[in-house]
Structures are given as structure tokens and as C-alpha cells.
């Protein structure tokens, strides 16, 4: 039991620290995931969405600190109870996501290690078992250092987490794990190989025959009687086909998709603001000067947003912006970049630089 307790202590502690730091590297991304849980289609608590970022930052910092305290053996009873409450909460979330297929990725390890809902749930069950083992063997959990030293280490860890969170919120994630990181050839990542596996569907047709509804598969349609009345067509995926890393990027203006033209441009600057209503006013004030600088350097400049035209017109008027905002799906834009607004430079579809509006002066424009 002693060895099992020690193993559980270090495994759980290190995993909580790792998981917390991965999400703390990108708290905005984790807040987007919480938005999904709070939405009307899942937990129906949309009033919490305005607090998603604050909740996200708090959760990930607590996750890291609890991992540190467990490793140190500091306030072990409080630590174990908080770990248990947190893992029970996470287990509920991942089970709900998996069983009802509401949120397809819990965001447990951010974009670094994507997990399916059932994989996330299985991971949490293992952690729950290990934490229960820690409760059973807590007499073997001894402090590594004196209370003063353990307290000092915990405090330093807390300050470090707060600083790290503040830094990435005002700049960008230190490590970018997304499909749109610097160096990505967007056109290449959108390609589907000729020999890529195709999706396989099971299609069932429902027809009413003599007042009774019956189901038929595709190969049985030739056997339909003349008096059959079509009712519905249902299909579900039996086997997923190949999905390229980038598969949902469009840049539409007045109903026309200009994605190929933008990706073919020798130099392009994308100004990403997934929601202009929520965009930083200070950030929007950096656009005009940056646009002029980029245009003088020969860049094609466009804005990308999911906001509707009335909001675009209002923002362009208020900030005297002289550029077109192309429409792109909001989820895609949130994946591309975390700041609102942010700047991305492309050369022939290859991402050369990405900057938070706070760092626009350092944007690589040449």
C-alpha cells in the first residue's frame, strides 16, 4: 500500500501540474471550451459565459497548485479533498460530453493532446481511483520539507502561475499547438491525398406502406412497392474519412469565397477579430497604422470576422477603418488566433508571423 500510495501521489501530482500548465499556456482556448459547456445546448447556463475566462484561469491555477501541494505533502487533507472534488467535477463533465456527445473535446490538455470524450472520461476514472488510493494511504503521505519551506514553494508557484497567465493573456500562448502556428503552409494542410480513406455512411430510408412505416437500406430500395410513400432519410457515420488539419477556413466577401486568392498572394496581412463587439478598443485603434505600414510594404490586407455586416459597418465608422472585413466562421477564427484583434502575416499561404495587438509593433512586415 505504501508503494502504491507513493506512485499515486507523484503520478496525480505531476499530471495535475502538467494538465494545468498546458491549459494555463492558453487560458483563452480553455475559456472557449467552457463557453460550450455553459451554452444553452449543453448545461443551459449562458449567464456564466461572461465569466468563462475568469473561471478558466482560476481552474487551471488551482489545478497546478493542488499538484504542487500534493507533491510537497502540504496540507494533505485539504489538498486531497480539493483534488477529489475537482476530479469528481471533471469526471461528470467528461461523462456528460461522452454520453450525450455534446462537447467533442473536453480540453483537458488543451490543443497539445486532443482526447476524445470517452478517452477523457477514462483518464478521469483512472485519476479518481488513484485519488481514492491516496485517501486510503494518506498516512504514508509525509511533507517533503518543513511547513515554512512548503508554504514558500507553494506561494512561489502561485505567483509564477499568475504571472504566466497574465503574460499569455496580454500576448499569445508561449507554445502554439494549433493547426495555424507560425510556419504552417495552409494550402498544404488543406489538401486531401488522392488515396485518403473516404467516410463510410449507413443510410436508412423510412417509407410508409399501407399506413405502416418501414425502414429500408440503400440496397433494398429497388424492392419498394409502388404505393410506398417517402417519410425520412437518416444516416450516421460508420467510419470517419480523412480530415485535413485545416478543413474549415473560408474568406467570404459578398457571398464569394476568396480563400484561394488570399492564400496565393505573395504577401498578405490578416487582421483577425472573431467578434468585433467584443474586440478591444485599444486593439482596434492599432489597425489603421498597421494597415498603412503593410500596404506600403506591398501586402494585401483584409480583415476576418464572424460579425454581421451591421456591426462591421459600425466599427469601421467608429474607428475610421479603411479595409474590407471578410466573413469566416467564428470557431475557425478562435482556432486561428486568441487575441481579439490579432495580426497574421502570410507569404504564399505560409504563416510567417502572428502577433497579439499588444505586440503589433513587433509584427514582421517586410
Automatic annotation (TrEMBL):
Q: Where in the cell is it found?
A: Membrane
Q: Which residues cross the membrane?
A: 47-72, 79-100, 120-137, 144-166
Q: Which UniProt keywords apply?
A: Membrane, Transmembrane, Transmembrane helix
Q: What do the Gene Ontology cellular component annotations say?
A: membrane
Coiled-coil region list:
none
Pfam (any one): MauE
**Keyword Phosphoprotein (UniProt):** no
The name on file for this protein is DoxX protein
Q: Which organism is it from?
A: Paenimyroides marinum
